[in-house]
Amino acid sequence: MTFSRRDALKTALLAAGSTLAAPVIMRHAALGADPIKVVGIHDASGGLDIYGKPMIACLEMAVDEVNASGGLLGRQVELINYDPQSNIQLYTQFATQAATKDKAAVVHGGITSASREAIRPILRKFNTLYFYNTQYEGGVCDRNCFCTGSTPAQNVQKLIPYVLEKFGKKIYVVAADYNYGQITSKWITKYTREGGGEVVAVDFFPLDVTNFGPAISKIQAAKPDVVISSLVGGAHISFYRQWAAAGMKSQIAMASTTAGGGSESVLLSAAEGDGMLASFSYFSEIKNPLNDAFVAKFKAKYGATIPYLPPELPMRTYIGFMLWAEGVRRAKSIDRMAMIKALESGISMDTPAGMTTLDPKTHHVTLDVFLAVMKNQGFDVLQTFPQQPPLDTASVCDLQAHPNTNQQFVVDVKI
């Protein structure tokens, strides 16, 4: 997948790529016997690197913090990072290697739902614990897997009512053509209808599409009040640029379930991105002492190569590792089943994104959700919704009652 970048950022992002895009990146533990091996599998190159690079950075920060405080169980943590280059075959290869060769205690990885569903069965097969730290469409029910990102009942449910009230009832959806976009578009339709609105059309686009001229013409003809975007990846940034170039920003409002989750807010100029609404479980602009300290540390460490800390995915990666580390402390072991039981004991953690609590029944999290508007290549936070449970996945998944469940449920949203 190819995509253009804002010239002003090319040097910085290429510099990031030179350090993060190698097939394997080792952050060696301090000298000592028997380190605990943790594997990260995130796209440091390819069309999804706008998400992967900040996720890798925050995983590194989390590991460094734990090691600086003495490690876990008297041992240092050794982080092994693999770059699947936005290639599903490499995801499966690296997941197998993590489980069989590296003997990882846990894998933190995956960005798209396709990558998650490629590696999740492999890690379960080899009894390797798995954390998926990405906002997604919900429904995964697997005792070996913990999902720390927000789901539609947490974020989309907050975005759509605001959009309907502020801009109008006629909605046009553009979405990525895979699990996330297809299922999330159903949730958008559900919440739109519940709010008295109408979805006039839903268009899906493969991840490598860069020409959105025909789609923009269709939207112009439909004359919606607002466009909701669930587009994903570097190539799809072209939609926002072409939308602005066509003069549509001043005519039809834009909101998104994904824009800004990577580096979109920085890669877009203010003229292209300002005014777009988004809802995530984290924005670097939220104000609390833990987040102020985290952002300052991130900027000091990575600011030269990653100019802006994007919402949700990097922070959820940091939090996912910290939840896992707390599980190790409680289990006093890295044995997989001991770890799962410890993680199911009701861990709550105050984080830069607010309180996060692991739900034993779903292996998802209760978290704070924020509504924000893109402004000056960042975000202004408009509203906060404290402690939102994963009600969508909870409606279909109970791992306490049915611990052998192993599938992704597509929640029936009755559209």
Describe the protein in words.
The chain is an alpha/beta fold. The protein has 2 domains: 7-150 and 285-367 and 386-408, 3-Layer(aba) Sandwich (Rossmann fold); 156-280, Response regulator (Rossmann fold). Helix content is 39%, strand content 22%. It contains 14 helices and 17 strands. The strands form 3 sheets. Strands 8, 9, 10, 11, 12, 13, 14, 15 and 16 form a 9-stranded mixed sheet that branches. It has a 6-stranded mixed sheet with strand order 1-3-2-4-5-7, sandwiched between helices. A hairpin with a 6-residue loop joins strand 14 (354-358) and strand 15. Helix 3 (88-100) runs parallel beside helix 4 (113-125) and helix 5 (156-167) crosses helix 6. The longest helix has 20 residues, at 49-68. The protein is globular. Residues 1-23 have low confidence and may be disordered.
